[in-house]
Amino acid sequence: MYLWFNKLGSPPHFYRIAGKWLPWLSAVFALLLITGLYGGLVYAPTDYQQGESFRIIYIHVPAAWMSLFVYVVMAFCGVVIIVWRMKLAEVVLISSAPIGASFTFLALATGSLWGKPMWGTWWVWDARLTSELILLFLYLGVIGLHSAIDDKRIASRAVAILAIVGVVNIPIIHYSVEWWNSLHQGPTVTKFDKPSIDMRMLIPLLIMALSFQIYYVIALFQSSRAELLRRERNSKWVAELSGGN
Amino acid sequence: MNRLSLTQAFIFLLRRDLTLVFRNRGELANPLLFFILVITLFPLAIGAIPELLARIAPGIIWVAALLAAMLSLDSIFRSDFDDGSLEQLLLSAHPMPVLVLAKVCAHWLVTGLPLLIMAPVLAEMLGMASEAQGILLLTILIGTPVLSLIGAIGVALTIGLRKGGIILSLLVLPLYVPVLIFAASAIENAALGLDVSAQINMLLAFLFLALSLSPWATAAALKMSMS
Amino acid sequence: MSNTALLQINDLSCIRDDRVLFEHLSLSLDGGQMLLVEGRNGSGKTSLLRILTGLKLADAGDIFWQGQSITRLGADYYEAVNYVGHHDGIKRELTCLENLRLVQAMGKPAPIELDDALEQVLLYRYGDTPVGNLSAGQKRRLALARLLVTESKLWILDEPFTSLDKKSMDYFQGVFEQHIQNQGMVVMTSHHEMVMPGPSLKRLNLSE
Amino acid sequence: MSEFLNMGGYAVYVWSSYGLAALILWLNWYLPRRQHQQLLQQNKRRHHGTGE
After folding, report:
1. For residue A7, pLDDT beyond 70
2. pTM (2 d.p.)
3. Which residues of A touch B158 (CB under 8 A)?
4. Which stretches of chain B score pLDDT less than 70?
5. The domain spanning residue C173 has which CATH number?
6. Domain count, chain C
């Protein structure tokens, strides 16, 4: 296993593999997205309580799941950076940050768009939305810290430590906010996180979640390849790559 | 002669930091003045309606304490970073997390403790219920060390940056949210005469978690910033 | 004693913003030897020294002390090392004695009275004056006094003679020679020519 | 079809959510891709000829 881990770790190898996989992944993503959208927008029945506005769930919930998933991936890369000092993990971590932040922002925006018709306000201090907002700050912290340090090798180790500290704090923040929300329980009970179990609603949701996962890998490969070129611009393999063709 | 024991080194560094602070006493008052200033802004902004002020007093005091603590974080490592003694600490014969803990303790004694002394006066000014003031002190006693410990990680990460201040608040404030939530609600419950043991236990849990984990993270971040 | 030298450097390389400072640098240093690192400014002398202390991470290669990698040794390696860098590493607000007491507390104390150490570096009269009032030369002497008050095998010195007058330079050169004779080790950079007996002096030029 | 577009009166919210999602997903793919092309160009110029 170590050999594979090490081989994958070598930038030129990853650069080529990612390049080869991108078209296939895009095809799979397109397929999943179309079925997911069709399922969510047409196939799934209207929610008896919220009417059609519940269909925003097919963007909001997958985005929220992804915002958490990407941060956990970043923290894992952080551990790999600190322990094995793997260049690729540094690139993956910093390339994932903007994607994770975008998912978090998307979850927040769609949450607010979903809340408006139901409660007449754009922002509701709901437990999930508040945790999501704090998670966005954690992402912006990672991006801000990385861009503030000039030497990118040091910057990667700094954000590695921050991502690890962040991931330890995410559950703490989440349950604190959950507990806080139960204290100041507003008049409306939010129905965000417990989608009704009707199969015809759930299946499109899972398909959309899967398509978001594939999308993350595509966007990650794309930005990692760019970051690799920037970081390794004076290494041999980049010279061959650009001098060659 | 062999090297000092760990506790001796800890106490030595703690004493050194405290003498350093008393050598330039001017800075000592800054966090305190900031704390008082921020709190006096609220009545001016919201109006001096007693019930309203008393109701939001716990929140105001804790937000002000949190901001005062954060502003003073920079002084933990700044002077040592500038004159090169931070390098010498990193290269000392003692494990770095213990030395970091000594410096964070010194910082807490210099910033956290004065807040503790000042808080009742301000609570009185805001008309906070007297039963709540006892719990207010308890939350500040337990909470401010957590602010220093977590803040030390942020400072260690941003010490090498020219304009670290803004980034520091972006890194540290989200991590302060749990402490703020449980501290403010503890005081609120106390004001209503309700039980506060749940909140206090959570604050203690945060304290022990921070005590055990953050020195290691800070030491790693310092080593990285000096690299 | 393992057959390899006390300090072993294998295939070290260091890159600073796209410029390769040095690459595939391998050498070893044993007790009783001094390594003089030369090279024009910006050739990576300071970076090499900081990597040797473990403060800075090399881009590639590793360093072994008594056969073990210094990253794994951590504080044990630091106990055997004394580093004097560009910064003096002393607190302005503390007096000379207080600074030396701190240095001893943080390292392995040498069996010497602090007053004697101050005497040797001609700072006895300033024992109780805050360092902030001293001249650059006096501060440098106090910084170098760390070598007298703590016991360490490997001295890593970055331009130790900066802002020292001739008299102090000769004195410290004597201290270094004494350290080498007691099987100690010194790695240093300096613009001043070192007069050392041949076999125990190694040179490394980073700018060719 | 128009009934579908109307989304039971919530058209504004539903379609702006999906529109925003499309925009964000596209941006996160397009920006790195364009940056990648630019870097390839820069490298070609840097390593022009025999790639010194």
Report:
1. no
2. 0.88
3. 145, 148
4. 1
5. 3.40.50.300
6. 1
